[in-house]
Amino acid sequence: MRKSKNKKTKTCRHEWVVFSTALQDVCLLVECVKCGLFGTVDDPTEEEWSEAFDAAENPYLWTDQSRVTVRGVPAIRHVVKNPDISDSENTLG
Ligand SMILES: [Zn+2]
Predict the structure, then answer these.
(1) What is the dihedral of CA 33, 37, 38, 41, to 10 degrees?
(2) What percent of the chain has pLDDT over 90?
(3) What is the pTM of this model?
(4) How far apart are the CA of 73 and the centre of ligand 1, in A?
(5) CA of 53 to the centre of ligand 1 (A)
(6) Could you give the CA distance from residue 6 to residue 27 in angstroms, rounded to a whole number?
(7) Average pLDDT over every residue of 71-89
(8) Which residues have a Cβ under 8 Å from the Cβ of 41 and sit 6 or more positions away?
(9) Residue 77 in 3-state DSSP?
(10) What is the distance in A from the centroid of ligand 1 to the CA of 81?
């Protein structure tokens, strides 16, 4: 657990959370709860797609990082930091 001065988005071990779907593109919208990076999952299965309809109300963790396409940092954070999956930045360093 050493500290780095690199940009957070580069060193972050992203924890993607599905927070919505993009109907026109048929992709899942994900956001890293640690650094706020925004991404998409472009080829969801039918099961994943229907599961994600609930994501706006119940965001859930997306573990398959290899399928996330990073799109950049959104202007606003969609996902409220979840204490269950957040890191411990609130401690004095
Ligand atoms: Zn991240």
Answers:
(1) -80
(2) 63
(3) 0.72
(4) 10
(5) 23
(6) 30
(7) 64
(8) 18, 27, 28, 30, 48, 62, 64, 67, 68, 69
(9) coil
(10) 12
